[in-house]
Amino acid sequence: MTASTLFSNIVRDAHRNGIALDRSRRSIEWFRERARDVRSINRSRMFDDSTRTVGTIEPGNMYSFFYDPKHKNTLPYYDRFPLVFPFSPAERGFLGINLHYLPYELRARLMDGLAEHINNDKLDKTTKLKINYGILKSAARLKYFEPCVKRYLDNHVRSQFVRIAPKEWEIAVFLPLQSFQNASVQQVWADSRRMIN
User: Fold this and answer.
1) How big is the chain by its Cα radius of gyration, in Å?
2) pLDDT single digits (tens) 81-110
């Protein structure tokens, strides 16, 4: 099953169950539970839907892509398939928050904090996060972001970007898409917890 089909099925199921596509507690919890039920997904097939793939990113949107770090041989670990909110350009690339570096419950807390910085409640193509490094550092509810900030070099991106629609952010955050190299997901998440505490 592609991510596109998975997202569509979950959203359709939400409509059938009377769940609104909004930021209400009921809606968020419903989507989190459905995403947790997914055991695996074919990352490569996420690129089958040409309506989702883009060649460039825009800060404030959510994207996934294949990445091959420049210093992969010396990094303790890295995520081959990041799930990122880009927030700032950087030399030859960009800075982004890769949510995969947090265990699911901390992703939920970070998303709750990030939701306070969404420009509108429409959950459509106009919806974006309005964040920068200063906002991230100063907001107590965003304290979980530190292990997630990564710099991505444009010439080490190995695919197009899959843009995740705002109405699907809550689903994507809880899908098991992380692809850590050189360490287990448990080790990465334990290191992230130590950095936060």
Assistant:
1) 16
2) 999 999 999 999 999 999 999 998 899 889
* DSSP one-letter code for 194: H
Q: Domain ranges for the chain, please list them.
A: 3-196
Cα–Cα distance measured from residue 132 to residue 89, given in angstroms and rounded to the nearest whole number: 10
Whole-prediction pTM:
0.82
Helical (H) or strand (E) element with 85: strand 83-90
- Find, among 17, 7, 54, 2, the residue nearest to 167 by Cα: 7
∠ CA 14-106-56, rounded to 5°: 70
DSSP class of residue 140? G
Token reading at 102: 């947090």
For the record, the structure tokens of 126 come out as: 């106009």
Can you tell me the distance from the alpha carbon of 140 to that of 98, in angstroms, rounded to the nearest whole number? 19
Cβ atoms of 132 and 121 within 8 Å: the answer is: no
Cα gap 27→111, rounded to integer Å: 14
Distances (CA, A) of 131 to 15, 75, 107, 115, 164: 30, 27, 17, 10, 18
Residue corresponding to tokens 């939400």: 14
Cα gap 99→83, rounded to integer Å: 6
List CB contacts of 138: < 8 A, sequence separation 6 or more.
none
